[in-house]
Design goal:
392 residues, alpha+beta, nine-stranded mixed beta sheet, 34% helix
């Protein structure tokens, strides 16, 4: 069978309807939400129609299994709370279309909770053995819901874990989620390596009090501790980080979050990424010391949550070479080798088998936002490069 570009795009747009939100092509489809489960059921039907055997594992990872042995392809279909239509979904639908068109057996996967409602690439981390299921079940989202409770909503679909030994390798197609390809005018990126990530929650415990009667010099304002931390961490990182190093405070809870109350607690996420494991460790040391110094200075309590993260990983060179052949044939002189600053399921799968990734441009580098988009001609170019790489 030949690639059907119209079917590929139609499937992408059909998947977008599950959790369609916001403006444009926005999607809200968090892991284990009704929209997410409905999307997975729909994907299972499409896999079956393509001659694959749908299989949900205990975490909710959805596999479309071909005969053994096979190449595994895919990504994830859950989204950020305010996400775009291509993040993850592109890799799943591209894999499905390749499975229909390829001369060799292709299995397809949509991993669960790549976006980290409960951790870091949760579904593939559990499947690859990097995270124990019983321990993962106690992980909570920002609302206090445990993974164990959330995955119970898929219990009627769940079977056992799929044996990774039946797969010869893994290829994941994805939008870049950054501006490099869009700015250079290149159509395809072949990923060389994926950065490492660290993620943990920090809490400052001060004293809740009246905002009108508590003198400023007597306050133990937890938000002020967070504010100082945010300012000081940038300074203390200065001689350690590189221009490629990034760090983010992305989620903040201030208690009791009322206009007339001095905040007694500030709880926030701290995430940092780099390709050097030693630098990631050095940054952790600076983070912990900075928080402790501020807590001591302001007479605050301090607590650190569990450390989550993944090590930097290089992509398989042989699979890269196949993707490079596809890229050169589809976009001669308009592709590049490049690292990934975003985290992907391929990081976990590389522990089990050869893994590689192919990027297509993100318009203006926007992702994790309703405005995320890629020109359809660029999506199709990436798909054709993928097919050439797989069948070559």
């Amino acid at each position: 069978m030949a690639i059907d570009e119209n079917r590929f795009l139609a499937d992408l747009h059909a998947l977008r309807e599950f959790g369609a939100a916001g403006v444009g092509k926005g999607v809200t489809r968090p892991a284990y939400s009704q929209a997410d489960i409905a999307a997975r059921r729909w994907l299972a039907t499409r896999m079956q129609e393509a001659g694959l055997q749908p299989h949900f594992d205990p975490v909710g990872n959805l596999f479309g299994l071909a005969q053994e042995p096979s190449l595994l392809m895919g990504s994830h279909s859950d989204s950020q709370p305010e996400g775009g239509w291509l993040d993850g979904a592109l890799g799943v639908i591209a894999a499905l279309e390749v499975a229909r068109a390829s001369d060799r057996p292709i299995s397809v996967v949509s991993f669960q909770d790549e976006e980290g409602r409960f951790g870091v690439t949760t579904g593939s981390a559990i499947w690859s053995g990097g995270l124990n299921l019983s321990q993962a079940d106690s992980l909570t989202d920002h609302a206090g819901v445990t993974l164990g409770a959330a995955r119970a909503s898929m219990r009627d679909l769940a079977r056992g874990f799929v044996d990774p030994g039946q797969f010869t390798g893994f290829i994941e197609m994805h939008i870049e989620q950054g501006p490099s390809l869009d700015e250079s005018g290149d159509l395809i990126g072949v990923v060389t390596d994926i950065v490492g990530i660290r993620d943990m929650v920090i809490s400052f415990e001060g004293q809740q009090n009246h905002a009108g009667t508590t003198p400023m010099h007597l306050r133990r304002d937890a938000f002020q501790a967070l504010s100082l931390f945010n300012a000081e961490i940038n300074t203390r990182f200065r001689n350690v980080v590189t221009p490629q190093t990034v760090w983010t405070i992305g989620h903040v809870e201030v208690h009791p979050n009322a206009s007339s109350i001095v905040p007694g607690r500030a709880r926030f996420s701290m995430q940092w990424r780099d390709s050097d494991p030693d630098r990631l460790l050095r940054m952790e040391e600076i983070i912990r010391k900075t928080a402790q110094d501020i807590a001591d200075r302001l007479e605050m309590g301090l607590a650190f949550g569990p450390m989550l993260g993944l090590e930097p990983v290089s992509m398989d060179r042989a699979l890269q070479a196949k993707l490079e052949v596809g890229a050169q044939r589809v976009a001669p002189g308009k592709w590049r080798s490049m690292p990934s600053g975003a985290l992907h399921d391929a990081t976990n799968i590389a522990k089990l088998m050869p893994a590689a990734m192919l990027f297509v441009p993100s318009i203006k580098g926007i992702s994790h936002d309703f405005a995320e988009d890629t020109l359809e001609k660029d999506l199709i170019a990436g798909l054709h490069a993928l097919v050439i790489a797989v069948n070559g």
